[in-house]
Amino acid sequence: MTDDGSAGGLRMAAIPSTASRQEVLGYDYLIVGCGLFGATFARLATDAGKRCLILDRRPHIGGNCYTENLAGINVHRYGAHIFHTSNKAVWSFVHRFAEFNNYVNSPKAISGDRLYSLPFNMNTFYELWRTRTPSEARQKIESQRFLGEPANLEEQALSLVGQDIYDTLIRDYTRKQWGKNPRELPAFIIKRLPLRFTYNNNYFTDRYQGIPIGGYTALFEAMLEGIEVRLNVDFFDNRSQLSGLAGKVVYTGCIDQYFDYSFGRLEYRSLDFHNEVLDIENFQGNAVINYCDTSEPFTRIIEHKHFEGSSSDVTVITREYPKACTGEAIPYYPVNDLRNQAIYRQYQARAQATENVIFGGRLSEYKYMDMHVVIESAMNRIRSELRQASA
Ligand code: FAD
Ligand code: UDP
To answer: What's the burial of 157, exposed, middle or buried (CB within 10 Å: 0-12/13-18/19+)?
Structure first.
């Protein structure tokens, strides 16, 4: 099937069969979306001698990793982005384009009038219960754990860390973040956070971690060297003509939109980012502070200068307000509950049956993927493409 999937019966422009298509068409790949999936795929395809055209409807490259310089500080426009991976190939790949610093993410969390350490570790347990040894902390958790098989985020959290931590640091943050009762959310979301019985505030467990020195935008600029990128272009404004420019389309936008919402809309969660430039040198003393109770509607305040240790008399902070993804709101997080997963599976089957289109990235795979996972996924896709081409 050669199907562009739109409900109105639109089809890709008459495209010659595979043998001759690349001689006639200008590009091997038309890549929709200049985020991490699109840019990684384009880089590796270009390195292998393929011709790529990337387009993005935003006015900039980098997708959600985009950083911009404000008052001499690299501001993460779409929320804090900390790079972490245990995959050496991924770590080497990003090092082709930027040097990384040794930033280690150690967020703090505010609940009531107290400040706690994250992720959940011996520091958190001491701050909450004054326990000092792992066995004291384990006993405390054991006495209040959920003992069944966790079927949702609330049960998973109660099973891992017990009632006190759930009530103090998880329940209200999760409600704000997702706009749902934690009982309606999948368990895996909370398993992103490590639980440790050591005094270790590192939010991630990966072997490699850091922030690209000079910001992510500079990394993308280096990654995209020699690759044609057209910004402010929405694929859906001209899909059949654009698809006709290349042998294959690599699509990294929302999968439900690609298929014209024919199985219904997938739910995404959106965010508003409110930036402020403050005339002080240091606002909160840390890059990330979470607000875990209901006294504030936002979930986090990011103070960007701490990612790169930028020295400046002023500082830039961002409050992160979660919101429903309706109208013009940008989709950030897939909501992988049972209802949406069932809808997604229908789109996935349709995608698998669609020739000459590769679906990749967070919105297209409808998966809560961190940056290193997206890069790995793009690496795998181009590898199998090249294998197929040489077979
Ligand atoms: P995106 O970055 O969303 O790129 C997709 C691009 O496609 C966008 O630029 C979009 O404009 C474009 N597009 C969509 N539809 C069209 C269309 N019709 N026409 C043209 N262009 C289109 N990961 C980490 O590893 N560490 C972190 O600390 C971290 N923090 C995060 C914080 C937040 C708030 C969020 C939302 C994500 C975070 N991530 C983090 C995840 C990270 O952002 C993603 O893994 C990564 O950006 C996904 O890349 P992508 O290419 O799949 O998607
Ligand atoms: N979470 C929480 N309290 C916190 C931090 C995280 O309850 O202080 C929960 C919340 O449900 C969140 C999930 O853990 O959506 C994953 O957190 P993470 O920091 O990985 O979220 P992201 O950075 O992807 O938004």
So the answer is: buried
Q: Which mutation among 164, 177, 195 tests ligand 2's pocket best, with the greatest number of atoms within 8 A of CB?
A: 177
The confidence score (pLDDT) of residue 210 equals 98
Query: Any catalytic annotation for residue 43?
Result: no
Which overall architecture, per CATH, does domain 21-103+208-265+335-390 show? 3-Layer(aba) Sandwich (3.40)
CB-ligand 2 contact for 290 (6 Å cutoff)? yes
Say what the pLDDT of residue 215 is: 97
pLDDT attached to residue 204: 98
Give me the catalytic one of 58, 239, 300, 350: 300
Catalytic residue among 96, 192, 207, 345: 192
Residues of the chain with CATH 3.40.50.720: 21-103+208-265+335-390
**Which protein residues are within 6 Å of ligand 1, measured from CB?**
32-38, 55-58, 63-65, 78-82, 234-236, 252-253, 271, 332, 361-363, 369-372, 374
Task: Read off the pTM.
Answer: 0.94
DSSP-assigned beta bridge partners for residue 300: 290, 320
Can you tell me the mean pLDDT for 57-67? 98
Q: Quick check: CB of 168 below 6 Å from ligand 2? A: no
Is 195 near ligand 2, meaning CB less than 6 Å away? Answer: no
CA separation for the pair 357, 1 (Å, rounded): 11
pLDDT tens readout for residues 268-313: 999 999 999 999 999 999 999 999 999 999 999 999 999 999 899 9
Contact assessment for residue 310 and residue 71, using Cβ atoms and an 8 Å cutoff: no
- Which atom of ligand 2 approaches the CA of 174 most closely? 11
Q: Give yes or no: 192 in active site.
A: yes
The CB of 173 under 6 Å from ligand 2? The reply is yes
Categorize the per-residue pLDDT at 168 as very low, low, confident or very high, splitting at 50, 70 and 90: very high
Q: Where are the alpha helices (DSSP H) in the chain?
A: 18-24, 36-47, 88-95, 122-129, 134-142, 153-165, 171-178, 216-223, 239-243, 255-258, 305-308, 338-352, 371-390
